[in-house]
Amino acid sequence: MQRVLTPELLDDPALDESLHQAAYAGLRRINTWSRTASYLRRELSRIAAHRSLTELRVLDVACGSGDMARSLAARPLAGGVRLEVDGCDISPAAVEQAQQLADRAGQTGTRFYVHDALAAPFPHRYDVVLCTLFLHHMTESQGVALFRQMAAAAEAAVLVDDLIRSRIGYWLAWTGCRILSRSTIVHNDGPVSVRGAFTPEEAVALAAEAGLPGARCKLHWPQRYLLTWEA
Fold it and tell me: Is Thylakoid included in the keywords of this UniProt record (predicted)?
């Protein structure tokens, strides 16, 4: 399947707020169903054990309303490793909502801030810098720039979790988005995201071009990959 990068409706700054919130609610259900947080926690646990860390500082890039960051911060990793999670996003509205939801959940240590990941270096360093469902928004040159920015802020590892561009992935996105969400934004953007996604091999090549040799991908449900690069 040829890659076709098309703007997604959710990225439109003029999108009505009610449609925005309905889309985020649908994405929340899809993320829960896909179990991405479980795969990330497993990889974070492995990294912490490998480096004998009792605490892991993590940044979730392009965090949206903060669902993934809050899920990761909800409890310690295997072995009692404590997670300190920050999130950043280019959208002030998304960051405001993410912080409100975290505070409401009692996750006062989870911080969110506005940042354009492609425009400037991250203001802090972390053990692990990760993003989920963000790379497929990038052109190839933007993808390379993103990897460089993430690596520059990562003491231990960079994790990128995203969709696999494939016919099966397209069918799953088309079907799953309609089953799990009533949002027309999600119905449109899910399949569009798959068409714009990189294959695991392409993602590894982008990482290598960015100066991150030895990145590796693990495939997981539902038609996603988790790319890991360790510093």
Answer: no
